[in-house]
């Protein structure tokens, strides 16, 4: 029978086992800090640092990163590029794809603002040479320039480029590149820890009944279902 | 905003402002900063602009601003270094311009620039907290300073000094050292080594990265690897593997440079018994970052290639193959390099090829190459990996042969714009066509085609047969075109592939001849480049193998006795060997084929005879002997002509002084040469011939028959059996020994 083949672990036993696991407070703090820094919550991180006393982290780099991200999100791509170059000139010099996407975004913004002449000139002078270097850039460029061909751009097959989600996509690409250049991971560790928790529980479900965490928000232990 | 981006950014205008800023000497800080930043933001990431500004002479102006800047003008120094670094990044012309204008020493100076944080403290007139001796005041002071520090940073950020002077200098130098055109660093100079070590010891990832780049760029010889190992550099690099991502990658790269092809350094500093290093490298193959995984694999593979006793574990070997295959999904440089690394990993090692086969490498690569637009390097890597897989294993060849799509991609790449891709596609086709299955199947078809009566049926069958195979005009025509390629390496690769394709299958041969390939083969056999010459002759040799009389005549007409004669006498022994083998195939077959060596007063036969008397390489002698062997299988006067070559009149009468070359060859250590020699004697002494008796007498007088008697128990069975036949034939005329 299936029910009998599974080991049952009661709440008491489980809690006892959990109590035996020691996690250092500093590690927990580092995890929180990692989350705040990666997600760019600079004020929260600053506060958390003074309150928890976690190791010194150069918070200025977050401010700079967030400023770049914000600039792209609000369509000031040229400003964003200058900021990235101040931060670390290597980022755009060694990452042609990112550089192309930023330039592409710049072109999209020019078109959005109806600066058609300027957009054409920019596409020809700045983007066409990149297309010559790389076939996939050329295709993206062609798609972008196609924006100029439609009266009703919003409902055209390339309308998605004008969408705010395109800005967000570019912004997150820059954000990730800056994080990588700072040897910081692109994603915070906390979500992946939660994923690991769920995975481990799923594995364990096959062998035992135990107090599970189903609601991650409250993290309450549910009584084992036998 | 008035004006478009383009009108204010016109290069000429910017250059003018840059020049006047540079002419300003020590002053005009703000203006200088502004124009430098503008230039920097124009060129970063933009190769075309870099080149045009280099042409306009921007680099000397920037370097002049750098050289005249005061050491406290941090922002200016940073902007100069960043701009110079960007000019040097990925553009060799930029590196040259930077070096030519003497920027190098100025950039080196930046590395010893005082720490900016101290500057901030002095700026606000406070002592640094760690230099403060009052224990009580330190905590309070620290708190105040943190505040000031924060403010100062904000201010600096506004002034656009995003990074420290040292970082900017190190980055620029690193960019220079990442270029081929940078000067080599002399590790044998004691001062240089000290400086290098000091770079690696710095607690700054850009500076350690610079150290690593210097090594990667300059370390080439075993002696350089040795001196770096002895100076403890490997150990320092291993320590840096624990640092940031960029430190790790840079260290892995220079680590690879130091261990590459140097078993001595490896046995001393790495390897499984050196547990820590080995363990770290293995661990890094599972790293989160693709580039780190790739570099760790590269290091382990280099260790294995230089010292095959390492990396014996099948588990780790398979793991490396899987990691590299997985990296293929990276669309950029990492994926490109991963597949090239895989190709070099499995080259020349059948057991690794088997492992790669079992890991479904072929399916994965075949899928991958049909998927999207692939860059040249990626295609090259895929073709080379497939070629290596197919160099030995029949199972690999048959999988690819069953995938017409894959074959189409490879064939289409014969006309790719990039040399390396064309070469790789050729090698790939060559190795696939080595297939025994293809060979035997096509040979069977060959026979069927030859006996089939109706031409219509024949054509129909041809189409049907070749549909499943790649040896069609679609392959042959571009391959012949490659013989006209401007790159020698492409020509050689195409020749090798053609050699392989034309060897067995009559249909291939006639297709090749009809497509006009012979003319260019003959042309290439006269090339000044001995590799091209060799492979061209080789291809002709294979083309000549078992070819029908009409084709043979066509080839000979193109080649002519004179050309063949000069190839037989070529300065390169390998060319001689192939040329003799070609002659051998020429005279093989119907008796009238033998006539070819007698044209133009036996020019060719005499050349073969001369080689037999003068050549020292046994490979050449073997082929030469087989030519005579084939000629000796002909009619009476053919046999007599061979006798003339073996026993020239002079030695005939005075055989005490000149030993016949025949005896020398029968005494050779090389069994193949003895076989060829005895076989020739067998052909010369066939008893039915009118002159057989006279020839036996001559051979006996030259001491050849007694030499044969000594060989009755030759260790080589082939030789032994033929010796027996030869002796029996010569005995038919009675034993004259008494």
From TrEMBL, chain A:
Pfam families: CTLH (PF10607), LisH (PF08513)
Domain CTLH span(s) in chain numbering: 61-118
UniProt-recorded name of the protein: CTLH domain-containing protein
From TrEMBL, chain B:
Family matches, as Pfam families: Arm
Domain of life of the native organism: Eukaryota
Chief location bin: cytoplasm
Any one GO CC term of the record: nucleus
Keyword Lipid biosynthesis: no
Cross-referenced InterPro entries: ARM-like, ARM-type_fold, Armadillo, ARMC8/Vid28
Cell compartments where the protein resides: Cytoplasm; Nucleus
A GO biological-process term: proteasome-mediated ubiquitin-dependent protein catabolic process
Keywords recorded for this protein, A-Z: Cytoplasm, Nucleus, Repeat
Record's keyword annotation contains Transmembrane helix: no
Protein name: Armadillo repeat-containing protein 8
């Amino acid at each position: 029978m299936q029910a009998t083949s599974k080991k049952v672990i009661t709440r008491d036993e489980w809690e006892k086992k959990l109590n035996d696991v020691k996690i250092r407070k500093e590690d927990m703090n580092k995890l929180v800090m990692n989350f705040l820094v990666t997600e760019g919550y600079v004020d929260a991180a600053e506060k958390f640092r003074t309150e928890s006393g976690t190791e010194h982290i150069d918070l200025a780099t977050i401010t700079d990163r967030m400023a770049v991200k914000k600039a792209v999100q609000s369509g000031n791509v040229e400003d964003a590029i200058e900021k990235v170059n101040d931060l670390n000139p290597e980022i755009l010099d060694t990452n042609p794809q990112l550089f192309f996407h930023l330039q592409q975004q710049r072109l999209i913004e020019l078109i959005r603002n109806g600066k058609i002449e300027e957009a054409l000139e920019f596409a020809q002078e700045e983007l066409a040479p990149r297309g010559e270097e790389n076939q996939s850039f050329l295709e993206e460029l062609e798609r972008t320039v196609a924006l100029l061909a439609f009266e009703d751009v919003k409902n055209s097959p390339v309308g998605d480029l004008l969408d705010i989600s395109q800005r967000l996509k570019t912004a997150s690409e820059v954000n990730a590149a800056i994080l990588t250049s700072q040897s910081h991971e692109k994603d915070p560790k906390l979500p992946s820890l939660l994923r690991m928790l769920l995975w481990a529980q799923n594995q364990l479900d096959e062998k035992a009944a135990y107090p599970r965490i189903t609601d991650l928000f409250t993290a309450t232990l549910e009584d084992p279902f036998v | 905003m008035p004006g478009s981006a383009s009108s204010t950014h016109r290069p000429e205008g910017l250059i003018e402002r840059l020049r006047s800023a540079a002419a300003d000497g020590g002053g005009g800080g703000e203006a200088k900063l502004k124009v430098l930043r503008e230039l920097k933001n124009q060129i970063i990431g933009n190769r075309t602009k870099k080149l045009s500004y280099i042409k306009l002479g921007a680099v000397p102006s920037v370097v002049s601003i750098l050289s005249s800047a005061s050491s406290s003008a941090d922002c200016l120094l940073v902007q100069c270094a960043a701009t110079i670094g960007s000019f040097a990044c990925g553009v060799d012309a930029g590196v040259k311009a930077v070096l030519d204008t003497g920027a190098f020493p100025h950039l080196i100076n930046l590395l010893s620039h005082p720490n900016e944080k101290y500057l901030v403290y002095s700026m606000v007139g406070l002592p640094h907290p760690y230099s403060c001796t009052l224990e009580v005041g330190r905590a309070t002071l620290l708190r105040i300073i943190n505040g000031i520090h924060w403010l100062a940073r904000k201010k600096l950020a506004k002034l656009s000094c995003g990074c420290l002077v040292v970082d900017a200098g190190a980055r620029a130098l690193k960019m220079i050292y990442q270029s081929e055109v940078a000067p080599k660093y002399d590790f044998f100079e004691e001062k240089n080594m000290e400086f290098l070590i000091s770079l690696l010891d710095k607690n700054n990832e850009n500076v350690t990265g610079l150290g690593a780049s210097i090594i990667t760029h300059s370390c080439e010889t075993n002696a350089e690897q040795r001196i770096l190992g002895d100076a403890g550099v490997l150990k320092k690099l291993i320590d840096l593997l624990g640092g940031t991502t960029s430190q790790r990658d840079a260290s892995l790269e220079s680590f690879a440079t130091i261990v590459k092809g140097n078993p001595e350094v490896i046995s001393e500093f790495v390897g499984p018994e050196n547990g820590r290093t080995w363990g770290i490298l293995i661990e890094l193959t599972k790293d989160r970052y693709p580039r780190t995984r790739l570099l760790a694999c590269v290091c382990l593979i280099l260790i294995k290639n230089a010292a095959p006793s390492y990396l014996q574990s099948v588990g780790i070997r398979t793991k490396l193959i899987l990691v590299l295959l997985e990296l293929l999904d990276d669309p950029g440089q990492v994926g490109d390099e991963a597949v090239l690394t895989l190709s070099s990993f499995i080259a020349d090692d059948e057991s690794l090829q088997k492992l790669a086969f079992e890991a479904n490498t072929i399916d994965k690569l075949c899928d991958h190459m049909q998927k999207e637009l692939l860059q040249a390097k990626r295609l090259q890597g895929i073709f080379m990996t497939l070629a290596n897989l197919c160099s030995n294993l029949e199972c690999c060849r048959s999988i690819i042969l069953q995938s017409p799509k894959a074959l189409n991609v490879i064939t289409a790449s014969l006309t790719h714009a990039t040399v390396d891709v064309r070469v790789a596609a050729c090698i790939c086709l060559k190795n696939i066509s080595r297939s025994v299955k293809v060979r035997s199947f096509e040979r069977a078809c060959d026979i069927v085609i030859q006996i089939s009566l109706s031409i219509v049926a024949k054509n129909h069958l041809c189409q049907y047969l070749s549909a499943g195979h790649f040896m069609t005009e679609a392959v042959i025509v571009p391959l012949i075109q490659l013989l006209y390629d401007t790159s020698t390496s492409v020509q050689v690769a195409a020749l090798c592939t053609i050699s392989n394709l034309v060897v067995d299958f009559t249909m291939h041969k006639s297709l090749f001849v009809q497509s006009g390939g012979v003319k260019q083969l003959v042309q290439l056999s006269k090339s000044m480049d001995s590799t091209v010459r060799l492979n061209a002759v080789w291809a002709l040799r294979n083309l000549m193998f078992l070819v029908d009389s009409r084709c043979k005549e066509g080839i000979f007409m193109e080649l002519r006795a004179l050309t063949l004669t000069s190839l037989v006498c070529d300065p390169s022994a390998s060319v001689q060997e192939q040329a003799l083998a070609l002659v051998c195939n020429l005279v093989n077959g119907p008796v009238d084929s033998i006539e070819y060596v007698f044209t133009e007063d036996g020019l060719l036969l005499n050349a073969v005879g001369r080689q037999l008397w003068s050549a020292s390489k046994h490979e050449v002698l073997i082929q030469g002997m087989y030519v005579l062997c084939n000629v000796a299988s002909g009619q009476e006067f053919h046999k007599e002509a061979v006798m003339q070559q073996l026993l020239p009149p002079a030695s005939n009468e005075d055989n005490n002084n000149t030993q016949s070359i025949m005896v020398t060859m029968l005494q050779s250590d090389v069994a193949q040469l003895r076989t060829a020699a005895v076989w020739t004697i067998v052909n010369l002494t066939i008893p039915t011939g009118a002159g057989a008796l006279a020839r036996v007498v001559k051979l006996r007088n030259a001491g050849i028959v007694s030499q044969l008697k000594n060989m009755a128990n030759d260790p080589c069975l082939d030789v032994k059996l033929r010796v027996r036949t030869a002796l029996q034939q010569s005995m038919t005329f009675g034993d004259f020994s008494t």
